[in-house]
Amino acid sequence: VQLVESGGGLVQAGESLRLSCTASGGTLPGYAMGWIRQAPGKEREFVAAISWSGDTTAYADSVKGRSTISRDNAKNTVYLQMNNLKPEDTAVYYCNAARYIARIAALTATYWGQGTQVTVSS
User: Fold this and answer.
1) pLDDT tens digits for 60-104?
2) How many Å separate Cα 57 from the centre of its chain?
3) Per-residue pLDDT reduced to its tens digit, 4-37
4) In this structure, what is the dihedral angle of CA atoms 10, 15, 49, 9, given to the nearest 10 degrees?
5) Cα–Cα distances in Å, from 30 out to 16, 98, 111, 113?
6) Quick one: pLDDT at residue 27?
7) Helix boundaries (H) for 1-122
8) How does DSSP classify residue 42?
């Protein structure tokens, strides 16, 4: 199974983006999915995650209130809607999949995408 991200780009501060991640080459039934990001010169950090059912979500404090994670299991796709983007949101965003949200939050997910660049100009 491969995770393929899309939706990154260059935006101005205050604008919005929606990232998408689709699992191809198979399905991951029961898996939580989420997003990790890595800014230039910084460590990777957890952004958001969602359970298989969608009933449980988790967000980093840095994006809480500005971002919404959702998923469409029929399309094997997870989304991250990011609003009111800030320059500090600039990073490569990686899609993750793991059995549990906690694994994603701990940066130990089983599956990783190649990443999509998000750049926010001030």
Assistant:
1) 999 999 999 999 999 999 999 999 999 999 999 999 999 999 999
2) 12
3) 999 999 999 999 999 999 999 988 999 999 999 9
4) -10
5) 30, 9, 13, 18
6) 87
7) 101-105
8) S
- Tokens representing 78? 């997870």
For residues 7 and 20, the answer to whether their CB atoms sit within 8 Å is yes
Residue keyed to tokens 């490569």: 92
The region that residue 110 occupies, defined by phi over 0 for left and psi between -120 and 50 for alpha, beta otherwise, is alpha
What are the structure tokens assigned to 41, written together? 């010169």
Tallying the residues shown for the chain, one arrives at: 122
CB atoms within 10 A of CB 19: 23
pLDDT in tens, 104-113: 999 999 999 9
Query: Could you say which DSSP state residue 114 is in?
Result: -
